[in-house]
Design a protein that fits this description.
Rossmann fold; 6 strands
Amino acid sequence: MLRMTSSPGLGDSGLDLLVWDAPNIDMTLSQVIGARPGPDSRPRFDALGRWFVRSAGDRDVEASVFTNVQPQNALNMRAWVETLRGFGFAVFARPKLHPSDDIDDDMLRHIERRAGERRLTRVVVASGDGRNFRAPLEELADVGVQVVVLSFAEIAGYAQESDRITFIDLEDVEGVFTSPLNRTRLDALPPDGAWLPPTGSLRDLLRAS
């Protein structure tokens, strides 16, 4: 377990820190929409950056995207990485050479390092991975840092259950998705209710028996 603290620092105006778990968000987005994300269903990082900066006010801001790079995809990912850097995001890229090669610990070490260097005012983590992130983020909240989790309501139960973490559904961040996602949000039903059409066929039940 990493030790999460936030050091005040003389004259430190406070830092808002955003970390984005690209493998987790890609995986959970696929689960939520039931398909591989296409151009219209991928998040827009320019809109994410605008939201983050506006909500930080006059505080310093820093945003980083953490990603795995499979050797066969390195060329295809280059344009995406350079676009992120152009928007003002730092990118941490780790080669995905083995199934166990992940970036969760790198994200946590980055947050811990920044907490030791600056007075963290707000930490925004985009990940639905409660197993790795819930305890460290609650430790930060316990020392006065505002902790926000960006993910999907269907996935990030850990953030919605915690009384120390603020949860924001990614689709509720203005402009992050250019078109409504094809998903069923039971947490955002209209007051008069909504019809949820079947996704399978009753006839298939006979064929499956």
